[in-house]
Amino acid sequence: MGIFNFLVSKTIMHIPAPIVSIFAKSYIAGPTLYDAVKVTHDLNKKGMMATIDVLGEFISTKEEAIFYKNECIKILDVIAKEGLDANLSLKPTQMGLNLDKEFAFENIKEIVAHAKELNNFVRIDMEDTPCTDDTLEFFRRLREEFPGHVGTVLQAYLRRTPKDIENLSDGLLNFRLCKGIYNEPRKLAYKDPYIVNQNYIYSLEKLFQKKAYVGIATHDEKLVFEALRLIEKYGLKREEYEFQMLLGVDEELRNIIVSGGHRLRVYVPFGKDWLPYSRRRLKENPNIARHALKQFLGM
Ligand code: FDA
Questions:
Q1: I need a labelling partner for 87 at 20 to 30 A (CA). Which of 2, 156, 186, 266 fits?
Q2: 125 lines ligand 1 (CB under 6 A)
Q3: pLDDT higher for 241 or 5?
Q4: Ligand 1: does its nearest atom lie under 6 Å from the Cβ of 49?
């Protein structure tokens, strides 16, 4: 990364919200569920699936958690009513994990139970490392009661991930595998992008060996290439895995994957609480952030 990009990625957290909003637009469906439905309809027409996410995380009151739980239930109802090819993604801290673990669990359980009634699926996103153990535990407990209707996420930057996969008990396993986006200490997470990629491929192969259904979440074509090699090596059928990408990122690669005959799901966030999500997206792509800063400085 060049020095300018490095500086930009370090300062993105301080760029004012109105500037971030200009560049956040492509990453977010819009402020309302209606916007997410519209984007999902368009994706479905192009042969892509979606996972809808209402933006909001690290909330500070139980009332907020209940609000987001109700929003998630509404999303599942609207997906069913509109006949969309989509499921739901949610964040444990959005459900109150930082306030009260069992309260958060019960909120997520109610949503997963509703997803089961509608024959749909809930993905529990993975947040920063203070949440990892609890999130994996939530997945284990919910999978017992609602097999096939819940999954979670593993992060390839974490040193622990291959061990977490080895420790998985048998049964329906459903994971999204991504690199990981939070700022973690070196003690817990690899910092070298080469090693993160190696750990991604190593973890993906372990998941395939465990017969897990994997959402291969990446825009890194090197990883897409390696994933295709492993899919072939393990003779996986089309329905036994999917690729996943974020809304607004590398649509060309998205189309290449779909025209290759693979299933692909797009992460479709919507809502008013767009700032933390957008800042993370801009931070991981300093080229866009550089553009944002130049606009801000009138350069
Ligand atoms: P990498 O960051 O190396 O990017 C590869 C290429 O993709 C870049 O060169 C660039 O061209 C392009 N690119 C990547 N990000 C971009 C962006 N924001 N804007 C424009 N171009 C971009 N993380 C997490 O910790 N917990 C989670 O639950 C999830 N969930 C999740 C769902 C889905 C569907 C995806 C795709 C990703 C996540 N992530 C996540 C985020 C993930 O951990 C990771 O930060 C990003 O996917 C970027 O990593 P890549 O594998 O794309 O590689």
A1: 156
A2: yes
A3: 241
A4: no
